[in-house]
């Protein structure tokens, strides 16, 4: 898809990957970017950066754990060409199985239920306007055998499977659904893994792995959006090694 003149929604856009993607969409010629998050101050700064990059920005505070609110918002706003389902949360402390059931439900609703809801509504709107592209932020943990944060890993594996199951929508609705799998990324979400900062397990992960920049991931999102030769359900994993960004491409029928 040629991004020039297109409209987009980016969830989780108050900072990190979402902010970087929103700004990059603007720099690639997007006409309008709708910014969705719960962090109003972060949204305001992202809007400033998006408009400085040349696109019109609209700011929307939306709690993605409130599924009726998510459904209502997307019914009203999903007439766009591009949707980046980027928002996500980690468990924090305590971890499973000591976490309470309300926290488990919150993680599931933010990371997967709201994403499915948004995609379902956006696909209908995109079909009516002739097609579109949806990129779901997954995680490289979905390619592994496990992860310390069990609920985060479980929900991201679900997003991966959902993305792959949407492969047929390219042919059926002219809506191409793709997956972005970030490796370790230096964003504010890392500071929510512990009590008031990074957890000890996250500090260990950071000490033993090279972190990507949000812009590294945003570049991969843009590549997924722009390349219409890709099949539905295709995905790309992005990692850093020895200062270089590395890409691992995959398809709906591969893990």
UniProtKB/TrEMBL annotation:
The keyword Repeat does not apply. Keywords: Oxidoreductase. InterPro entries: NAD(P)-bd_dom_sf, SDR_fam. GO terms for molecular function: oxidoreductase activity, acting on the CH-OH group of donors, NAD or NADP as acceptor. One of its GO terms (cellular component) is cytoplasm. Belongs to the short-chain dehydrogenases/reductases (SDR) family. PANTHER family: 15-HYDROXYPROSTAGLANDIN DEHYDROGENASE [NAD(+)]. This is Short-chain dehydrogenase. It comes from Sphingopyxis macrogoltabida.
């Amino acid at each position: 898809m040629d991004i020039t003149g297109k409209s987009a929604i980016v969830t989780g856009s108050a900072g990190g990957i979402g902010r970087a993607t929103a700004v990059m969409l603007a720099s690639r010629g997007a006409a309008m970017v709708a910014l969705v998050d719960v962090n109003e101050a972060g949204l305001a700064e992202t809007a400033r950066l998006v408009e400085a990059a040349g696109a019109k920005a609209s700011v929307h505070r939306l709690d993605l754990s409130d599924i009726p609110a998510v459904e209502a918002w997307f019914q009203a706003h999903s007439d766009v060409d591009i949707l980046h389902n980027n928002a996500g949360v980690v468990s924090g402390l305590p971890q499973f199985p000591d976490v309470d059931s309300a926290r488990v439900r919150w993680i599931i609703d933010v990371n997967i239920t709201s994403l499915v809801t948004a995609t379902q509504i956006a696909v209908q709107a995109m079909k009516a306007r002739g097609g579109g592209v949806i990129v779901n932020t997954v995680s490289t943990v979905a390619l592994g055998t496990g992860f310390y944060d069990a609920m985060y890993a479980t929900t991201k594996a679900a997003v991966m499977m959902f993305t792959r199951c949407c492969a047929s929508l390219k042919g059926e609705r002219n809506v191409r659904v793709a997956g972005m799998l970030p490796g370790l990324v230096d964003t504010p979400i890392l500071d929510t893994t512990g009590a008031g900062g990074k957890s000890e397990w996250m500090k260990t992960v950071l000490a033993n792995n090279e972190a990507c920049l949000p812009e590294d991931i945003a570049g991969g999102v843009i590549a997924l959006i722009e390349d219409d030769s890709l099949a539905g359900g295709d995905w790309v994993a992005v990692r850093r090694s020895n200062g270089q960004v590395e890409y691992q491409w995959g398809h709906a029928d591969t893990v």
